[in-house]
Amino acid sequence: MTAISFDAVSKIFQTPRGPLQALDGVSLAVQEGEFFGLLGPNGAGKTTLISILAGLTRATSGHTQVLGCDVQTQAAQARRLLGVVPQELVFDPFFNVREALRFQSGYFGIRKNDAWIDELLHCLGLSDKANSNMRQLSGGMKRRVLVAQALVHKPPVIVLDEPTAGVDVELRQTLWQFIARLNRDGHTVLLTTHYLEEAEALCGRLAMLKQGRVVALARTSELLKAASSNVLRFKLDAQLPPELAQRARVTGRIVQFPAHNAAEIEHYLAAVRQAGLVAEDVEIRKADLEDVFLQVMGEGAQTPSDAAVEVAP
Amino acid sequence: MNGWQALFYKEILRFWKVGFQTVAAPVMTAMLYLLIFGHVLEDRVKVYDQITYTAFLLPGLVMMSVLQNAFANSSSSLIQSKMMGNLVFLLLTPLNHWSWFFAYVGSSVVRGLAVGLGVFVVTGWFTPLSFVAPQWIVLFAIMGATMLGSMGVIAGLWAEKFDQMAAFQNFIIMPMTFLSGVFYSIHSLPPFWQTLSHFNPFFYMIDGFRYGFFGASDVSPWLSLAVVGSCTVLISATALHLLRIGFKIRG
Question: pTM value?
């Protein structure tokens, strides 16, 4: 069964500067049990899409369903099936962790939920914080509580909107082990993240959004295969000649060229040598998701990190 | 447990945890009003025969406290949740507009009545009081608190920042309460202001409430009941409608 389906979903925000098209006919289907990744630069429409799914925002047109329940016409059922971890680090300053989780259970009509709450606290490393006020928790701890709050009603479909933004390595590991376990137990997971290595490691399938449109949708392995299979990487103390720089990705001293075969690699190295430059720390590695991402985002537009498209007022 | 009961209980706990600010402080304020105005005006103002000014003032202050605190409860809870962003926890739940309404307005009624009772308890021994028709006292207190709790929901949904909320409170709620006859009988006003007061629903709440104590009032309690009853229904219906469409909370 389809866990999440977006059917031609569009969203136009009315802003003081005129209408802003945040989503433009997005169609996606996530099957039950999948670990699905939603990638895209800032302003691509990821959070808008998730807000529509969660019923926080209404789509201008199109249909969205969670396990067959329409998020507008069957809102209550759809929300019971969905556990959403919001991107913003929000909390209720009046209560401690356990109170917050009990109230959240209560809103879903669940009265005695302490066994599950204890398990959540344990799995997220929050057991010793159960009676701490939300205000006293660090950012990472607050993030864990957000995850626990999203799971109090044991939703079959879990949505995480950049859950690891600004979170330390240890928490990321704890969090991913837990989410991966839930996924193995049959929960469907939809994840948006800025950490591409996370998406590569966890997600079976990926969609890339750009300016409110789906620009890539495939299995993670296929996306990786479709990209240039290798990357030539080296360090350089001087500037690359312009004709080479066009084709390279330069980050400070690090230069990277996408390459399909040995001849191409030899060609680049020779060009560098002919320019009178010395390449250090030369290595050849497999293309990763970041390479695919930059390649897909770079196609067509010159400003891949630009916000959503403006349409005429 | 139904979802709305959890939210109702949370809203009660929310104000109770800061009870000094939400219950004790307004009781203290009302007591000061009674001490000062009672002292200054006791010998100068006579509204009804056989009723001292302090006795006249007391029900007015009780009702004013009920109304102001009922409004403050739902409005401040909503605006705080909106500003803090934690309203999202509610928006993600299957709670419908009736649940939101009963929880927010219900907790406002509880806080309004708690403060009103508090004011009554600390000021009641200043002056002898009569309770001619207690059913009117209870009825007007509950209706008034419901109406102001609903107004608080409307204001909380509408306001986008604390500034707008303060404007709503200081330019609408405060003048309507102060100009409703808490401190005076409208019969002592010039004809123009007397006529104007008759368009203020808060006047009927105070007048009907006071009737329950003394059996005397500026207008018939049945008229007050009709006015306050229809205003309460109208405002509650508006609040429910705004909650149903997710006014300013669901984009």
Answer: 0.89
pLDDT by residue (tens digit) across B75-124?
A: 999 999 999 999 999 999 999 999 999 999 999 999 999 999 999 999 98
Per CB-CB distance under 8 Å, the chain A contacts of B93 are 79, 104, 107-108
The helix-helix angle for A97-107 and B3-16 (nearest 10°) equals: 150
The nearest alpha carbon in chain A to B251 belongs to: A57
The per-residue pLDDT of chain A, averaged, comes to 89
Subunit contact B251:A55, Cβ cutoff 8 A: no
User: Could you tell me if B97 lies within 8 Å of chain A, comparing CB atoms?
Assistant: no
The answer on A72 and A171 residing in a single domain is yes
Q: How many domains does chain A have?
A: 2
The CATH number linked to A202 is: 3.40.50.300
**8 Å CB contact of A90 and B84:** yes
Interface contacts (A, B; CB < 8 Å): 84
Q: Smallest CA–CA separation between A148 and chain B, in Å?
A: 12
pLDDT at A307 over 50: no
- Tell me: pLDDT of A302 over 50: no
Would you say residue B2 lies in a domain?
Answer: no
- Note the pLDDT tens digit of each residue in A115-125: 999 999 999 99
Q: Do B93 and A79 count as a contact with CB atoms less than 8 A apart?
A: yes
Domain range for A253 is 228-286
Domain check: are A10 and A65 in the same one? yes
Predicted pLDDT at A298: 78
CATH number at residue A270: 3.30.70
Q: Which chain B positions have a beta carbon within 8 Å of A57's beta carbon? A: 250-251
User: Is A295 among the domain residues?
Assistant: no
The answer to whether the Cβ–Cβ distance between A79 and B92 falls below 8 Å is yes
> What sign does the CA torsion over A291, A296, A300, A306 have?
negative
Q: Is B192 on the interface with A (CB under 8 A)?
A: no
Contacts (Cβ under 8 Å, ≥6 apart) of A169: none
The tens digit of pLDDT for each residue in A176-211 reads: 999 999 999 999 999 998 788 888 889 999 999 999
Candidates B40, B204, B7; CA nearest to B108 is B7
Domain count, chain B: 1
Distance (Å) from the alpha carbon of B26 to chain A's nearest alpha carbon: 21
From A76, A104, A149, residue closest to B94, measured CB to CB: A76
B7/A106 Cβ within 8 A: yes
Same domain, A196 and A236: no
Is residue A9 in a domain? yes
Looking at the domain assignment, is residue A209 inside a domain? Answer: yes
What domain range includes position B91? 19-245
Tell whether B83 lies on the interface with A, counting CB pairs under 8 A.
Answer: no
CB–CB of A108 and B1 under 8 A? no
